[in-house]
Amino acid sequence: MADSIRFRPRRGPRRAAALLSPGGAAAGQIALERGAGARLARLRAAAADRVRQRRAPTRPVMRALVATAPGRLAWRDVPAPAPPGPGAAVVRPIAVATCDMDRPLVLGATPFPLPLALGHECVAEVLTVGDGVRTVRQGQRVVVPFQISCGECVACRAGWTSNCRAVPPISMYGFGVGGGHWGGTLADQLAVPFADAMLVPLPDGIDPVAAASVADTVCDGYRHAGAHLPGLLARDPDTEVLIVAGLDRRPIFSASVPLYCGSAALALGARRVRLVDSRAHVRRAAEGLGIEALDPKALRRLRPAALVVAASASPEGMWAALNKTAPDGVCSSVGGLHRVGRVPLARLYGRNASFHVGRTNARALIPEVLELMASGRFHPELVISAEGSLDDAPRLLDAHYRTADIKTILRA
Ligand SMILES: [Zn+2]
Ligand SMILES: [Zn+2]
User: Fold this and answer.
1) What CATH architecture applies to the domain 13-216+361-375+383-411?
2) How, if at all, do strands 408-411 and 386-389 pair?
3) pTM score, two decimals?
4) Ligand approaching nearest to the C-alpha of 35
5) Residues with Cβ–ion distance below 5 A, ligand 2
């Protein structure tokens, strides 16, 4: 039970403040700094298609769950995706997960404009593939990364799949116009533009429900451990990990990323993983995974750790995490929507510490995450706090967003 924390939709001036925040302006600049013409062309084409399908439908209708206004969810009848062109596919989501970002998104606490087609994490079944698709076939179960990537550009080849050059910046499912208008995974069907590059077959023996969040949040938690821990452990087997998660009284972000991160660190061999969070139910979930959980009051007396993960999505949490990074250690930030934050430069300089901040390269990480799951050492399914039918999505997700529930999975 997610304690007694309750959240309310942001309407009126509070919604306007979220839309016009300095962080929103920064995100808008990033979205438009490359490929603005392509972004606009996609929007225009989608609007024209909607009008055409309304006047003289040529495609069947499907359901898509839409966040219509802050705190309001409804199924909408929309045209199903067009038959896939060369290299593309159409899939049917069979297990859809909430992301830690969905609560602020749906309640109107982010600069992303509403309405939007919701959902960006899923395992799906391939319905149809276009000409030339080689690596997936009809009926196969696949993880669908939330970010759109082509697999062939200079960024994709380097593994920086979150910055694919073939599409406008921050192109992703489930963020509406802000994410480039690619649709959401809470729908009967989803179009995948680069099937061979994006879709990762689900290994036999892995339950779609267990892997639904691998599309985003599991990779987002795993990456901090996966990128740094093996090297740190090779040099010092006693390397400690500290995850600075929710610090204020009622963090609006869900807590799955910090929990996946701690779990992955243990799976990769860390002997001691600590997580700091103000929420009692998050600390209980962490203890259940073998992570040592502490209240933020304990943070002051904690000694610095060689790997610190700034997972609070707040400038205060990042400041605390940077100050707790040990000599020659690494501070890795999950990021956030604040435009600026303080950095203890002299301390980092004196300690020879490194700081990394950025978005997850989900597609590049999915195979190693699935491999770790298949090895039996990593169990992201233990983080799931509620499960139900996709048909029941409006009711179950409303409950998820208004409480501090950690992870809801919907099965189709
Ligand atoms: Zn997400
Ligand atoms: Zn690319």
Assistant:
1) Alpha-Beta Complex (3.90)
2) parallel
3) 0.96
4) 2
5) 149-150, 153, 156, 164, 166
